[in-house]
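Researcher: I'd like a structural prediction for the single chain below. Treat it as a standalone chain; there are no partners to consider.
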Amino acid sequence: METLVSSWYMGEPTMPEKYALPPGVRPGDQRDAPVSKALPIIDLSKADGTGREDVIHQIIQASQEFGFFQVINHGVSTLHDAMGMCKKFFEMPIEDRKSLYSTDINQAVRLFTSGYNYETEDYHYWRDILRLPATPLEEYLPLWPHKPAQFRDIVGEFSQETKKLGSRLLELISEGLGLKPDYFEGKRSEWQMVNVNRYPPCPEPKLALGVHKHSDPNLLTILYQGDVYGLQFFKDGECYGIEPILDAFVINIAWQLQIISNGKLITSEHRAVTNPTKPRTTFGLFIAPSKDCVIGPAEELVTATSPPRYKTDTYGSFIDTFVALHCATEKVEEAFKYVSQ
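Model: Treating it as a single chain, here is the predicted structure.
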């Protein structure tokens, strides 16, 4: 428990050396990167009527240009109740959270800190994470926090509503790519993981990061980033912020969608910066294939003029390589590049 930032940081004006990132990695003045005004905010309610075609066009265009977009009127009714529960969890005394703390990276439900493996990191990230597997929910829910009261009921329902939102988005993306509406059902979107991130106020935000620059390995990420700025993405070598919008979800195209779309959609590198005065709590739902699911460019999208750009392999194999390459986007791209025989 002593490694959790929220367990030891008491408002000191400086932070331990291990949290000061090396030059070239630290955010510096880019911590205050301009918020992107071009990133689309898409009204999903219009997809239920005559505006469906326009909504699909907006989603595909944003996924090709940015790898990100935001959605409003998404139908998730438990958003604020669930975020309230997540904030209360991290505000509870350490004693009420310690049973969930673990440094074992193989433990399914766990409370931990920094990055993938605190014990082996060269430097640390300014965040604590509550990881909650959500597939199948009935199996994992009894392992979720029992405090605050109703956490399991409210956050569990929220995860299910958010999962339905993901299915709806994948159906729209399928249609936009010219695939069957049910293309992403079953094994291609079988696995869901919830991450609740807590970024305490940071005394030196130009030196530290909440999350390093990376691209997500899964299929689709749905993030509620609360009301405190912190999410940034990269486009053409430039860094841009994503504005926190009340009731909006940030949608992130992840690696498997880039592969399946044969590069028509892109996954963009992004990171989380810290705030000097305000804590930031975010909720992310990661939708991914099952580990034995075979992923490659969709046959419908491979033609003589658009040959395959990526190898076909299992998602489990992709994850092993992704972790071994420390999430480095260019190296992952090279590792899964299709080579004709």
